[in-house]
Write a structure and sequence with these properties.
heterodimer, A: 311 residues, alpha/beta, CBS-domain, 14 helices, 39% helix, 24% strand, B: 384 residues, Butyryl-CoA Dehydrogenase, subunit A, domain 3, MetI-like fold, 2 domains, 3-stranded antiparallel β-sheet, transport (chain A), ATP-binding (chain A)
Chain lengths: 311, 384
């Protein structure tokens, strides 16, 4: 558990981060979202003390971060930045093994971990281990950046706009990969973005910041359904709000018995996508099936009812 | 014109013109001005003929653009013809002249030498040889020139006679010149590397230091050597025992100090530029993963910046080999001794005895340092 307690950063008397407190549960993704200048990156960088707080403290599993030497603290926290920041003169194995090397792991242990991570990110170890970052595509470099941050099994992973440099298609893939790997490893992640869509898609919890203050901290559904301020309401996109809410609910939660015509959809399809398909196909209901097993159907009326009940 | 190498055409035109320039001079003694002799007047046609033919063949072989190996062979043939004419021409000219007569290469020889050397360099660069091949070529050239000098084939030339009468002085001067150039490089590196690293970390130091070093660099070299004389004589007077370790107004110490001061700016500036080559995101990631500043320096900034740092040392070395000549003026020794003696005696070949080794040393050092820079450039892609 990460506890951020009344943390403040002053630059020449102006607060870049103003008395922010929040708790990040172990094994969850918390996304801090805000416009540029909102203080979100400053807040993130105070967690691994790349920026020293003016007041307040951060505790990781009860232990204050100020109790450790800075470099010791950072070796326990994974850190991923936009544009990956890989070492151009290290091979992929050298990059991923950088923190284990700092921690004094044996060569064999490091090598095994590197191969394990490359496998996890669907990159064939034999093919990628000895390459250099310049030989990889942007998406591959980004994956190596995340693998490097995970190498020493850190207590916490900090990510600063990690997908900002990727094109939309690769970004969607990278987000899905991150979600998948986080579920698999049970990592605790704090991620900073300016993209509310990304925040809603990735976050178990979303924290909205503006002007150095934490405006609202809650689940994506809470943030969309009950924005605490006009600014949050604006961030979650005004008229798109019902659609964003529907995007959080899988059709498996709105199933009813019966059948419908057409190509069946998977149970983890979101209600927003189902709505879109209904409109596109000009039908009132869609069949839902898990592979070859029919599960039932979802109707336009149910979707409409769910949207109304959320609003 | 298609298929002709443009530089090859230029070399052929220049080379043909140079063949008509005086190739050697014959003087009655070492002081008086000599009389220029054209190629075909050096010796009997059966001696000059083959040499001239070799050079013409060489110039012709330098023409085809698509055949770098042919052009290399052409340059080699041309150089061989040049040496042939120089060696045989010298003995033939001396045979018909008096006891004190001197022969020297003249404008035509030097011009042709430059033409064939450039032709060789141009053809080699078309092959873009790797560092190992370049090092091999450098050793080969040094060995060939060394063998030519060692064989005594050139001993009839005036410059060789100047050398023969000052063998010991020449060796002493060589050691002194190397000591000045490499010693000041070492001193500048020992002082400049830490200064560069500290200025990289500390903007205040950087802002204070760079203008001072730039100012030192703008002092004309003659003035710099001049300034050292009173400064060091004063020091040798105030500090007890300073004179005993060689600190005096004239001699090695002021020359060494002046060269070191000159070297500091290029060293510090290149260390700073080198340390800045690491991408900002890479450094941020290094900091974020818990590298201490020393680890960032030794694992990221220095390896990535090393080629730039070494380029700075290369500039300093070549600069100091040239500047060390001026040390001769203030009794610092080195090849400058011969240059200034030669100027005083109007003995051109004595000047050359100082100037030619200086040029050769600078060339060899520049090539060797370039090879070193390439070898230290970090790999960022796999070799296929």
């Amino acid at each position: 558990m990460i506890e951020i307690d009344e943390i403040t950063k002053l630059y020449e008397g102006t607060a870049a981060v103003d008395h922010v407190s929040m708790t990040v549960e172990t094994g969850t993704i918390t996304v801090i979202v805000g416009t540029s200048g909102s203080g979100k990156t400053t807040l993130l960088r105070m967690i691994n003390r790349l920026i020293e707080p003016s007041s307040g403290e951060v505790r990781i599993n009860g232990e204050a971060t100020s109790a450790l030497a800075k470099h010791e603290l950072r070796r326990r926290i994974g850190y991923v930045i936009q544009g990956d920041g890989l070492f151009p003169h290290y091979t992929i194995a050298g990059n991923i093994g950088a923190v284990p090397k700092l921690l004094g792991w044996t060569k064999d242990k490091t090598r095994a971990r590197v191969d394990e991570l490359l496998d996890l990110f669907s990159m064939e170890p034999a093919q990628f281990r000895d390459r250099y970052p310049a030989e990889l595509s942007g998406g591959q470099q980004q994956r190596v950046g995340v693998a490097r941050a995970l190498a020493s099994r850190p207590d916490l992973l900090l990510m600063d706009e990690p997908f900002g440099a990727l094109d939309p298609i690769i970004r969607a893939r990278a987000q899905a990969d991150l979600r998948h790997i986080q579920r698999q490893l049970g990592s605790t992640i704090v991620l900073v973005t300016h993209d509310m869509e990304e925040a809603i898609h990735l976050g178990d919890r979303v924290a909205v910041m503006d002007g150095g203050k934490l405006l609202q901290h809650g689940t994506p559904a809470e943030i969309i359904a009950a924005p605490a301020t006009d600014f949050v309401a604006q961030m979650v996109g005004g008229v798109d709000r019902p659609l964003r809410l529907l995007s959080l609910i899988p059709v498996s939660e709105a199933l009813e018995d019966g059948t419908a015509d057409g190509e069946p959809i998977a149970p983890d399809t979101s209600l927003r996508d189902a709505l879109s398909l209904c409109l596109w196909r000009g039908v009132e209901a869609l069949p839902v099936a898990d592979g070859d097993t029919p599960l039932g159907r979802v109707t336009l009326a149910t979707i409409r009812a769910r949207a109304a009940e959320l609003a | 014109m298609a298929g002709l190498s443009p530089p090859g055409v230029l070399f052929a035109v220049l080379g043909l013109a140079a063949i008509f320039a005086p190739f050697m001079t014959l003087a009655a003694n070492r002081i008086v001005a000599g009389e220029g002799r054209a190629l075909w007047t050096l010796a009997a046609p059966q001696i000059t003929g083959p040499g001239i033919a070799l050079m013409l063949l060489g110039l012709a072989l330098g023409l085809p653009a698509a055949r770098p190996f042919l052009r290399i062979a052409g340059a080699a043939l041309g150089l061989a013809g040049l040496v042939w004419l120089l060696v045989l021409g010298a003995s033939s000219l001396l045979a018909e002249a008096g006891d004190y007569a001197r022969v020297s290469p003249a404008a035509g020889f030097w011009f042709l030498l430059v033409v064939f050397a450039l032709m060789m360099a141009d053809a080699l660069s078309a092959l873009s040889p790797g560092p190992a091949a370049r090092a091999g070529l450098l050793v080969l050239v040094i060995a060939l020139v060394g063998a030519l000098l060692w064989s005594g084939a050139l001993s009839n030339l005036s410059i060789a006679q100047e050398f023969a009468s000052r063998k010991n002085a020449f060796y002493t001067a060589s050691l002194r010149h190397l000591g000045l150039a490499f010693g000041s490089l070492l001193a500048a590196a020992v002082i400049g590397l830490p200064l560069g690293v500290l200025s990289h970390r500390n903007a205040g130091l950087r802002r204070a230091l760079l203008p001072v070093l730039s100012f030192l660099q703008t002092i004309p070299s003659l003035a710099m050597f001049g300034i050292m004389i009173p400064v060091l004589s004063w020091l040798s007077g105030v500090i007890p025992g300073a004179r005993a370790i060689g600190i005096a107004g004239i001699g090695f110490a002021p020359a060494f100090l002046a060269l070191t001061l000159y070297s500091l700016l290029p060293v510090v500036a290149n260390v700073l530029a080198g340390l800045r080559t690491a991408p900002a995101a890479t450094l941020e990631a290094a900091r974020g993963m818990g590298m201490t500043w020393r680890q960032r320096l030794t694992r990221v900034e220095l390896p990535l910046g090393l080629p730039v740092v070494l380029s700075g040392l290369r500039i300093v070395l070549v600069q100091n080999i040239g500047l060390a000549v001026i040390a001769g003026l203030i009794g610092g020794g080195g090849y400058g001794t011969f240059v200034f003696q030669g100027l005083n005696q109007t003995a051109g070949d004595l000047i050359l005895l100082g100037a030619l080794p200086t040029v050769a040393l600078a060339l060899v050092s520049a090539i060797a340092m370039d090879i070193l820079v390439e070898l230290t450039t970090p790999r960022t892609e796999r070799e296929e």
